[in-house]
Design brief:
Largest sheet: 7 strands, mixed
Number of helices: 6
Number of domains: 1
Strand content: 35-45%
Distance between the termini: 12 Å
CATH topology: Rossmann fold
Bound molecules: glutamine
Structural class: alpha/beta
Radius of gyration: 15 Å
Number of strands: 13
Strand order of the largest sheet: 2-1-3-4-13-12-11
CATH class: Alpha Beta
Length: 192
């Protein structure tokens, strides 16, 4: 049987850290920079943090947006962090947004303002840990979930910061920037 193989969107942002974390779990990864990369066999997709507007523009320009969206809608497991979460969200501040739009969540971008752009916290992530290190970098949070299918996995400071909707997992923080691989392990195990 072939090993799990995960596509990591590598257009912009913190994708290398995800690859390292997944490889540390014995998972094969490959970078998606163009349509021919995407067409390789894969068991899951990671969308990294970075700048969601830039990632959106590149996804669109490279004709990756629709195939990726279609694959997620057809059940491909996906894990989005920070900008990745924003790209998965259907709404921003109560309005439909442009993106992959596969998750029933309403996000607030740069939610913590420019002053408090980045901070660390330790919190509970349901089913995973009660002491999970969370690194927020100009992070979004989730105003609200838009369907009962979305499970809230974590809240920080009264805001939703991690959710799961079936095969889709998203965090407002950056687990790939810590040494804690439990969320990645959870994603990989749930993909099977
Ligand atoms: N502020 C970024 C955005 O709006 C997200 C930041 C991040 O991914 N660390 O896309």
């Amino acid at each position: 049987m072939r090993r799990n193989r995960i596509a990591v969107l590598a257009l912009q942002g913190a994708f290398i850290e995800h690859e390292q974390m997944l490889q540390g779990l014995g998972v094969e990864t490959f970078e998606v920079r163009q349509l021919s990369d995407w067409e390789q066999p894969k068991d899951g997709l990671v969308i990294p943090g970075g700048e969601s507007t830039t990632q959106f523009r590149l996804l669109n320009d490279l004709a990756l947006l629709h195939p990726i969206r279609q694959a997620i809608l057809e059940g491909l497991p996906v894990f989005g962090t920070c900008a990745g979460l924003i790209l998965l969200a259907k709404q921003e501040d109560g309005h439909p947004r442009q993106g992959l739009c596969t998750m029933d969540i309403d996000v607030c971008r740069n939610a913590y303002g420019r002053q408090l752009g980045s901070f660390n916290a330790i919190g509970e992530v349901a089913d995973i840990a009660n002491d999970f290190p969370m690194t927020f970098i100009r992070a979004p949070y989730i105003h609200r979930t838009l369907s009962p299918e979305v499970e809230i996995l974590s809240e920080a400071d009264g805001h939703i910061v991690a959710v799961r909707q079936g095969h889709q997992l998203a965090t407002a923080f950056h687990p790939e920037l810590t040494a804690d691989n439990r969320l990645h392990r959870y994603f990989v195990e749930r993909m099977k």
